[in-house]
Every structure is written in structure tokens, then in C-alpha cells.
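Q: I have 344 residues here and want to know how they pack in 3D. Can you give me a structure?
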Amino acid sequence: MQDETSRPVAAKPKTLKDVSAASGLSLITVSRALREPERVQPETRARVHRAIREIGYVPNLTARSLVSSRSGMVGLVVPMLTSSLFADLAQGCASVLREAGLQMLLGVSMRDVAAEAEAVRTFIGRQADAIIVTGFAHTEDCAAMLRGYAGPVVETWNIRNERIDSAVGYDNRAAAAEMTRFLIGRGYRRIALVGGAVENNDQAADRNAGFLDTMREAGLPVDDWQVISLPTPTALEDGRVVLNRLMSEPQPPEAIFFHAEIPAQGAMLECLARGISVPRDLAIVGFGDMTLSSLLPTPLTTIRIRSFEIGASAARLVLDRLNGTVTEGRVVDVGYELVVRQSA
């Protein structure tokens, strides 16, 4: 067993003085080669960078940000990474930021607005140059922080009139209404809705509203058993459980509209296990268009979300604001697409 004296001592961070010593150049020359490379001979720059690689020097970005008032970092908060949709959102954002020389800080809230607020507080404390969040539901403290924040703020994944600064997303309410009209147009009347909890989730609330409004306009009743909320994050098992629950009703639904893709896939697999023919016995539709949905034995009808484009557009909007190209908040609607496949 190691005693206190035998524990390895952490190496001290390398400094410009270390680069100067390793390269055999003066501290002033090394500093100039990094800050104003155009004023230094190519051979000298190569000598400096060779020394940096050899000793593992990394610039102190915190100290640099105090001088430039820029950290080179943008904070992004997503609800979860178990869904490929939000992973694609992060990838789209990171790819655009990386091309501009910026790095992305990632926070995962698990749909907990308090966790989102903590991530935002951390981003601001780390002097992030901009903050991108998912949705419009925030705690009062978080909303106050975002409103008082000096940099660009982008709310994503939905389109609403009430926004803090900028927004990039699509109309969740209109998308849900279009899918509901599609089902009604195909002759389905007893339609069940399976979605996420609407508390602190503006996207789920808007999707529910789009469904209920469209059913009401068509003169179709919606009883309590027809609307089910699932916990977050959802899983394949949730779809299996909810399918069995709905199909045990005295008059089971003719169609089920899932507002999350993973439980919709779980329900499709349970139909296979139970011998329920889709769509002859039951229609199932989803929301998101994850990769597996088109590969199921009966491909899933769904709403396609352009998640990568949402992330990329949010990042481009941030860059425009930071570069001064755009000085005010903007709204970017990337749209959505109804994808009709064999499940309905």
C-alpha cells in the first residue's frame, strides 16, 4: 500500500517560459509567434510549435479570455443523449462551431428544469460566449439568468412568440395537428395519444394541444383513457406496456399516436409478439423519425424532425451575433415533414 510520500506528484502546467527554454528563443519571440504569427519568420514559428509539441504546452484560455472578453466556448443544454435526435442536435451545433474555432460545452438536463438552470449557471460562470438551450420551459431563476446574460441566447426545438432572445426549431403544435388530420383522413376515429408529461415541457404541451384541437374540430371525442403520459426518458419497454394497456380497453383504439419515437418502436415490436397486424388491426404513428423507424418490419409513419439542422442553425445564429453580422434576436423555423409509411 502506498504511503503519503510515495504518491506521484501532479506535474505543473507548462508555461511560455518552458516553451522559451525548450525552443532556445526569447520569451518575447515565443509570445509574438503565438499572438502575431505574421510578424515572425516561418522557421522561427516552426521552432516554437515544435517545442510546444515536445513539452505538451497548452495555452491558458482563462487568462486569455480575461484580456479578449471571449472564452471561445458555447454552452448547449439538451434533455438527454439516449435519443439520437438530441445527439444529432449536438453534432450539428458542434460541427458549425468547430469550423469557426469554437468549442461546445454540453449539459444534459434529463428534462429537469433545475438541472438546466445549474448548467446555465455553470456556463455563465465559465464565461461562455453564447448559450443554447432546448425548449422554452425554464425556472424563474434560469429565465432571469438568461435575460440578464450579455451574450446570445438561443432556445431550440420549438417555435413560440414568447422567447428570451433567438429561437430555432419547428412548430410542434402544427406538426401534431397535421399528423392527427392525416389519421382522421385515413378513416381512424378512435385515436389514442401517448406523449411525455407536459409539465416543464413546452414541446409535449404543444403536441398535446395540436392533437386535442384537431380531434375537437373533427367532432371526435377524446376520453381520459385515450391520453397517456410517459415518464422521461422513455424506453422501448414503455411502448410495450402502454400498448397492452390500451388494447385491454373495452373499445381499444384504432390508431395510436406516439409523441416519442422510442416507445412507438416498442409498441410495434409488441404488436409483432402478440400477432397484432399493423396497420390492419391497429395503426401506429410516431414523432421524430429515428433511424430504426424506417427499418422495422412495418416501417413507421412519423413526423421527421430536422434535428441536425436545428443545431447547425442555432450555431450559425450564434456566430452571426458574435461577429456583429446580426445585432438582434431572430427566429429560424427549419420546418418538419410528415413521412407516410406502411404503419398507418
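Q: Anything worth noting?
A: The chain is about 45% helix and 15% strand. The chain has three domains: 4-59, 71-170+307-334, 172-305.
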